[in-house]
Design a protein that fits this description.
The protein has 428 residues and is of the alpha/beta class. It has 14 helices and 18 strands. 32% of the residues lie in helices and 21% in strands.
């Protein structure tokens, strides 16, 4: 057998995984040019010498409270590595540890268990800063409306702090163009009305929102991103730390300072580090690490499976400790009439033609989705959960059984295989 070594189970051990293919098969590993990761000293130096901003120690002087916004377990950002450095800088600037609040900015995502909070922060809750999980339904303050009419509700704890810091990662994103920058706050610590409004706007009024299934490269200056920036101006984010991740969640690059400059530089770094040349093959294998915490987030690594329309076998790998998971748990909360009524708040007559076009695209996309046939290698995804999304797909707990299915579909000896070892951190 030809053996290929991968990593999976982000946040759950980041475990080694070995998969194999018959010797007669032609296997290509599609990967980025290897880059060294930053060591502790390099990370500290980049945080200490920010872009277009005073250092955190200077920003902290004369202030008593600070909020540090971090992403949740659905994102692989190594906040457990970054938080101690940020907290120390704030303390060196005069903010006591009791005045620092860490807010897990999960927007409308489900909450987190205490064990996951400890993994994500690297902090023991009894002796460290207060850690709070954002709830998009309560503890909110209304800031008014943006120029595009978005009602802006924001976490009250965050707004009460004198210094606001965001920590996240930069990655191609199908709506915002790229994650990172202001996105940790918007929608991260916004209320459900704000979250619904900006997503409805993107879905219905942004011309290029519904990309094709193989689309990957983001637009860093689309309407959705502009609205995020405008709302974040209202919130007042003082400092951002964004990382560019490599294999095994090592930090390839880090940018700190003023959020818009950090975002611009981070996007350029992602473009340089993540680009690969796709390979057309009989079998395409996409390892969805480090977005393999839940089935919903595996989709970040599905782009290689859909970039070619020819007949092929599509294989996705994901540990998925959380099983199917729950995407944007509160986004669709409420009865259909209530949701339609709230949806009408964002409606404008001049956008009706595009609404119809988008509606037709959604229907078409759902119909296409029903036809997709994925082979999913995961010990934690049940077939009934998988088929609720992709009726023709199947989950395998054993790699040998999955390879047997590939053999059945491709009985010839000269099968070509393309393996993407960390597909979410790659794009064509």
């Amino acid at each position: 057998m030809k053996e290929i070594r991968l990593t999976w189970a982000a946040w759950h051990g980041d475990l080694p995984l070995t998969i194999g293919f018959p010797e007669s098969w032609d296997v290509t590993i599609v990967e980025n040019t290897p880059q060294p990761v930053l060591d502790h000293a390099a990370i500290l130096a980049k945080i200490s010498r920010p872009q277009n901003s005073l250092p955190l120690t200077e920003l902290a002087k004369g202030k008593k409270t600070a909020a540090i916004l971090i992403d949740d377990m659905t994102r692989p950002t190594p906040t457990d590595m970054l938080l101690p450095l940020i907290i120390k800088a704030l303390e060196d600037g005069g903010i006591k540890r009791s005045g620092i609040t860490i807010v897990i900015a999960g927007a409308a995502h489900k909450g987190m268990e205490e064990d996951d909070v400890i993994k994500k922060t690297g902090l023991e809750p009894t002796i460290n800063p207060d850690v709070r999980i954002h709830d998009c339904d309560q503890n909110l303050v209304y800031l008014g409306r943006s120029l595009r009419g978005t009602p802006v509700y924001v976490n009250q704890t965050v707004m009460a702090c004198e210094l606001k810091i965001g920590v996240g990662m930069i990655l191609p994103h199908p709506i915002a163009g790229f994650s990172g920058g202001s996105k940790i706050a918007v929608p991260g610590v916004c209320g459900i009305e704000t979250i619904r409004h900006i997503h409805d706007y993107a879905q219905c009024y942004q011309p290029n929102y519904h990309h094709g299934p193989g689309s990957r490269l983001g637009n860093a200056d689309n309407d959705f991103r502009q609205e995020i920036e405008a709302i974040c101006d209202m919130i007042g984010m003082d400092f951002v730390v964004n990382v560019v991740l490599g294999p095994k969640r090592g930090i390839l690059d880090l940018f700190a300072g003023e959020r818009k400059e950090v975002f611009r530089q981070g996007v350029r770094s992602v473009m340089a580090h993540y680009r690969v040349k796709p390979v057309q093959a009989d079998v395409t294998v996409a390892n969805t690490y480090p977005f393999d915490t839940e089935m919903h987030y595996m989709l970040r690594g599905f782009w290689p499976l859909n970039i070619y329309n020819h007949r092929q076998t599509r294989v996705a790998i994901g540990f998925c400790k959380g099983g199917k998971g729950q995407l944007d748990a509160k986004q669709k909360k409420g009865s259909l009439p209530l949701r339609l009524m709230k949806r009408m708040r964002t409606f404008k007559p001049e956008h009706l033609p595009n609404d119809i076009k988008v509606g037709m695209n959604i229907i078409k996309k759902k119909m296409q989705q029903k036809k997709l046939d994925y082979l999913i290698f995961s010990p934690n995804i049940k077939n009934e959960e998988l088929r609720a999304v992709w009726p023709k797909s199947r989950s395998y707990a054993g790699w040998e059984e999955l390879v047997a299915e590939i053999r059945r579909r491709h009985p010839q000896n000269n099968v070509t295989v393309a393996v993407y070892p960390y597909a979410p951190l790659q794009f064509p």
